[in-house]
Specification:
By secondary structure, the protein is an alpha/beta fold. It is 42% helix and 15% strand. It has one domain: Rossmann fold (3-Layer(aba) Sandwich), CATH 3.40.50.720. Strand 2, helix 5 and strand 3 form a beta-alpha-beta unit.
């Protein structure tokens, strides 16, 4: 929120309580009362394995809930900026996906996010759909935290080599998102750190950057890693349109280094 205020989108008064996005009337009441000019929707069920086991719930939250937000934004004349995912693609293209490439989700999470994109486009013209992948942040739990925690606990690590995407630092993503919002150019965008990596490459970089170069990681394939969801094997996003506007994120390895440096500054015992 601070980044948005600095970027020319001041928050006048306290933000509204989070509405129940599954209730159209709840969303309408909150947004009509607050009367925003811009709504950034980050609400979603993002646990892809949970979504695979609960596909109807994933669809209700990630698609129908977003439709409620989009319809109310159309009523009040607000622009909707919606955060989406690389999992709207099947990962079979064999090269990085452009923003205009045909989508083809292969798991319930990706399908629910794809449906949300379609509902937004149907509901209002003033929208920004922003796809990203493999976000890591200082708060919460994500792949980076899990790899570090497992290594510190001395647990064996087996990581897949044939699931590939773009690790993306949340701080870089937010900075790029603010720049995009400032352009007021609606459309579909891919905002990810430059370059791409396998899960194995990402894990190796994490441990190396934390000074655990000798910690072993066993390379395995997706076929060996049994899980409820099926991820796109090559879900790499190309930031084509954002780069045309001058919005480019640094390489993912530089982002990991910056993440670790900040963690060490804030907690010398890390």
């Amino acid at each position: 929120m601070a980044r948005l205020s600095e970027g020319g989108y001041p928050l006048e008064g306290p933000p509204p309580d989070d509405p129940d996005i599954l209730s159209f009337e709840s969303v309408r009441a909150r947004l009509r009362d607050y009367a925003p000019t811009l709504v950034i929707n980050c609400a979603a069920l993002t646990n892809v394995d949970y979504c695979a086991e609960h596909p109807e719930e994933a669809y209700r939250v990630n698609a129908l809930g977003v439709q409620n937000i989009a319809l109310v934004c159309a009523e009040i004349g607000a622009t909707l900026c919606h955060i989406s995912t690389n999992e709207v693609f099947d990962g079979l293209k064999g090269s990085p996906y452009w923003e205009s490439d045909p989508t083809h989700p292969i798991n319930p999470y990706g399908y629910s996010k794809w449906a949300a994109e379609a509902m937004i486009r149907d509901a209002l013209p003033r929208h920004m759909i922003v796809r990203t992948s493999w976000l890591f942040a200082h708060d919460g739990v994500n792949f980076l935290h899990k790899i570090k925690a497992a290594a510190l606990a001395g647990k064996p690590l087996s990581v897949v080599t044939d699931e590939i995407a773009c690790p993306t630092y949340n701080e870089d993503f937010v900075e790029a998102l603010v720049k995009l919002v400032q352009t007021e150019r609606c459309g579909t965008y891919h905002l990810v750190n430059e370059g791409y990596a396998s899960r194995y490459d990402f894990a190796r970089c994490i441990l190396d950057t934390y000074g655990m170069r000798d910690y072993p990681i066993t390379p395995i394939s997706l076929a060996q890693f049994k899980r409820p969801s099926t991820p796109p094997p090559f879900g790499v996003l190309r930031n084509l349109i954002g780069a045309h506007l001058g919005i480019v994120l640094r390489h993912w390895r530089e982002a990991v280094e910056a993440f670790v440096e900040r963690e060490k500054r804030e907690d010398p015992h890390v």
